[in-house]
Amino acid sequence: MDEVPWSQTDKTVIPPHALAHLPKYGSEKWEIAYKEPFGRCIVAKEDIGEGERLYADHPLVHGPKQISALLCLGCYSQLYQEAYHPCSKCRWPLCSTECELKGLHHLECSAFVSANYKLNLADFGEENPLYESILPLRCLMLRNTCPEKWKTLRAMEAHDEPRRGSELWNVEQKNVCEFLVKKLKMSVSDDLIHSVTGVLDVNCHEIQAGAPDICNVRGLFPLSAMMSHDCYSNTHHTFTDDMTMIMVTSRPIKKGEQVTATYTHLLSGTTERRKHLRYGKFFDCVCRRCSDPTELGTFFSALRCTQCGGPVLCKDPLHPNNTYRCTECGNEVPVGVVSRLTNSVYYELQDADTGDPAALEAIFNKYEKLFHRNHFHLIGLEHSLSQLYGRSPGYLISELSNKQMDRKIECCRHVLAVIDVIDPGISRLRGLTKYELHAPLLMKANKEFQLQHLTRREFVRQLQDVLQLLRDTSYCLQFEPASTHEGQLCQIARQSAGELEQWICTVKQLPENNFLSESRYQINHDEESDSDCCIEDLSLEALLKKVESY
Ligand SMILES: C[S@@+](CC[C@H](N)C(=O)[O-])C[C@H]1O[C@@H](n2cnc3c(N)ncnc32)[C@H](O)[C@@H]1O
């Protein structure tokens, strides 16, 4: 029988073996503590500033995600049908002979060889369920190959009892237990396999490291596995090329406060986040954002009242079975209607060509009158649109009409207005969105300047706004490794900021006849504000007023 997992005997003490391999598993800044209802968690021992490095965490084990397209089990590069190298020993698809010895492939390779299991390469379709067994198998192999790592793994939370008999448990019974026991003839109990898949489901992090085509990889990070969840978290992590996780603070943390991460998708609503956390992580989130019907004033899960246009909110988001109500006219909307409406957007998105801005705009237009302006579906659509305008075929930045350019700007600003609240400080999403916003603003400013529509003062002001966006981009992406898309954008943003600074200096010295006079500009501007009701102020207050004026 396997040893009793430490986590089931005494959760209040940190077992020395659980973190012993880490060079430092506490620091002058933070420590691991135990707090109900969170369990083990990381707590700040002193005030910690924004952007401070907390620790580097090395993966105990890593492997493909449960659902994965063809990838190399040595280096995790994406593979293509008929263009891969079958391992000379076990026949798993790899990039080359070199990859037979790379990473952790030796673990499953020896198991497949000793079971004399003949892998049918014809089985490899778009997504192969066999990948689901690889990481559990690698974990189980640690029992003999690396007992210290195995002990650390077994000390992690598995939620054995609540998982037993769940939908997830049944899927894993079929895809993992049956395969490992019946096909690979491993002498291991179903319970132990489920405990391992439990540890993986509860504690794994997706790894985004190395070459850009490396995807669908997950790993167990012993220190980060101690961190609690918060929908308004205070950390940000990146990976080095060797898959080391670097944890930094995304905003200041007070002494005694927990150091937290987000286990779920930030751009989803309270009901959806809480469902995801209950289903996959077995707890009910009661964080500040989940407890607040307005989600920190963003109205991210609110509908738009069909009677008066006011925000329709769930009265008690921690008990979402009650009716939604308009905060202005009291109009009630049954919870069933809210979920049907929310789900129908998911269904439409499943069927839509999500790479086509026109298809997303059609969905946006259909639901805009039903959801609050900041509803997560609308913000999600605008997030996608902010990236598609300027990048997708037929919509490259040089091809955008003025209207499309303005729409890109509007989408970026709406997304930023929300993420500035729910994900402030160092955030990948903020960095990327600020980068998306800088390009159309810069193009517009330069164009207006060329047409002599701007005074020097106004042109410099617009360029300085763009400069600030570039500086914010590089600030938000400063920890991203240079090999990643985000790391490259950070470099580009830094370089562009330098060039823009020079351009601003030049503009300040250009002869006056390049610019519109201040008096002429004032007249034009006054005429525009009489005719144009477009608001530039995109604070939540202004967004609300805009919605209410429809
Ligand atoms: C990755 S582990 C975190 C470490 C865990 N507390 C432990 O002692 O091993 C995730 C588990 O921690 C608990 N947890 C994390 N964040 C929580 C929260 N905000 N509220 C309640 N439980 C939480 C849940 O049991 C969750 O499944």
UniProtKB/TrEMBL annotation:
CDD domains attached to this UniProt entry: SET_SMYD (cd20071)
GO MF entries: N-methyltransferase activity; protein methyltransferase activity; S-adenosylmethionine-dependent methyltransferase activity
InterPro entries in UniProt: SET_dom, SET_dom_sf, SET_SmydA-8
A Pfam match: SET
Every SET domain range: 28-264
Protein name as annotated: SET domain-containing protein SmydA-8-like
Species, as recorded: Hyalella azteca (Amphipod)
